[in-house]
Amino acid sequence: MILFLKLFLAHIIGDFFLQPAKWVKEKEKKKLKSGKLYIHVLLHIIVTALILWDTSLWRIVIIIGASHLIIDALKLLIQKKKTKRLLFFIDQLCHIIVLTICYYIFSDEPFNLNFINTEDVLLLVTCLLFLTIPVSIIMKTIFLKWNLSELTKNNESLEDAGKYIGILERVLVFIFIVLGHWEAVGFLITAKSVFRFGDLRESKDRQLTEYILIGTLISFGIAIITGILYNLIA
């Protein structure tokens, strides 16, 4: 894996550390006419060559440089304000795919995906996926009993923030339990309680307090049970 780690390190340095925000803005404005685009690609080539430090791998440097230019150019050409966030992640995924292909082509490691078919990996992926959208829908269904729009109408918050916070906390609780760090679960519950205490104190609404408490207990409870079941089965 040393070759892939070197390529990934070069990508991180080139794409995040050696690309100022003003370069990104200029590229988005001038697109293919921006000189910063070509300087950015050149820096990627230089950083990759320096980290590899092996002239026999010069083809990797050329492939990464050319692919980086193509991927970034395509992103700039089709990027809109509404698609900027999505294209960022697609862009990074494409770069990582290129790195992976280079790794398997130029290393002695045979390409196979047999590790994905192992029982432990499939169980882990299933548990993690279950704790995201499915549990969010389950909790939403449970709360259909109450009119939540009335409880939260005066509470300003980011769109879908609660859903994403719930997903993150469940995934973190699951990971902590799988790794055997129950104290981290306690710390997470305490941290959330501290932030929630301020909201509840300001709202002075018993129904909202009960809603938040029920939601938190269900969310953490499902994550804890899932983690325990994973440890028992795996």
| Overall pLDDT | 85
What is the terminal-to-terminal distance? 26 Å
Helix-strand pattern: HHHHHHHHHHH
| Rg over CA atoms | 23 Å
Oligomer classification: single chain
Strand percentage, roughly?
A: under 5%
Poorly predicted runs are none
The tally of beta strands, per DSSP, is: 0
Helix content: over 70%
Please outline the major beta sheet: none
Shape: extended
> Which class of secondary structure composition applies to the elements?
mainly alpha
Put simply, the count of helices is: 11
Task: Report a brief summary of the structure.
The chain has helices at residues 2-17, 21-30, 35-52, 58-78, 84-106, 119-130, 133-142, 148-152, 161-178, 182-203, 206-233. By secondary structure, the protein is mostly helical.
Structural descriptors:
extended; mainly alpha; 11 helices; 78% helix
Describe this structure in words.
With 234 residues, the chain is mainly α. Helices cover 78% and strands 0% of the residues. The chain has eleven helices and no strands. The radius of gyration is 23 Å and the shape is extended. The protein starts with a helix and ends with a helix. The model has no long low-confidence stretch (mean pLDDT 85).
